[in-house]
């Protein structure tokens, strides 16, 4: 993230799924060679940072943290679906009955 801020602050950067898109307004001008070299330097620096992070990545929730990745959604499955359903139904019921209770209380 620091490399993106340090080297890419002059461009629009967007990450979409597994791609990083860098957009520059000045890139199409043939006379601006500094913009081209800056973008190449940016690609090298950010590529090196991402490679380093990918090599040293570890997942503490996996059985072997240095080589495996935890099962997707394992944390989310710990919650009981019945408990969440009951709470959501109670919230919806409270929201639906509130206008009637408020009207009854104002008529007193």
Describe, in plain words, how this protein is organized in 3D:
The chain is mostly helical. It has three helices and two strands, in the order αββαα. The chain has helices at residues 2-7, 33-55, 81-107, and strands at 12-16, 19-23. The chain has a two-stranded antiparallel sheet with strand order 1-2. β1 (12-16) and β2 (19-23) form a beta hairpin. It is elongated and about 80 Å long.
Run of helices and strands:
HEEHH
Helix percentage: 40-55%
| Count of alpha and pi helical runs | 3
Residue share in β-strands: 5-15%
Strand order of the largest sheet: 1-2
What's the story with the biggest beta sheet? Answer: 2 strands, antiparallel
Q: What is the end-to-end distance? A: 60 Å
Give the oligomeric state.
Answer: single chain
Question: Count of DSSP E strands?
Answer: 2
Structural class: mainly alpha
Mean pLDDT, to the nearest integer, reads: 80
Shape: elongated
């Amino acid at each position: 993230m620091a490399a993106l801020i340090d080297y890419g602050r002059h461009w629009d950067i967007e990450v979409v799924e597994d791609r990083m898109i860098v957009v520059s307004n000045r890139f199409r001008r043939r006379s601006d060679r500094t913009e081209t070299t800056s973008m190449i330097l940016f690609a090298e620096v950010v590529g090196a940072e991402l490679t380093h992070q990918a090599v040293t990545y570890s997942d503490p929730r996996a059985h072997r943290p240095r080589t495996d990745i935890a099962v997707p959604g394992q944390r989310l499955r710990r919650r009981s679906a019945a408990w969440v359903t009951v709470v959501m139904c109670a919230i919806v019921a409270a929201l639906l009955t509130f206008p009637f209770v408020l009207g009854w209380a104002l008529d007193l």
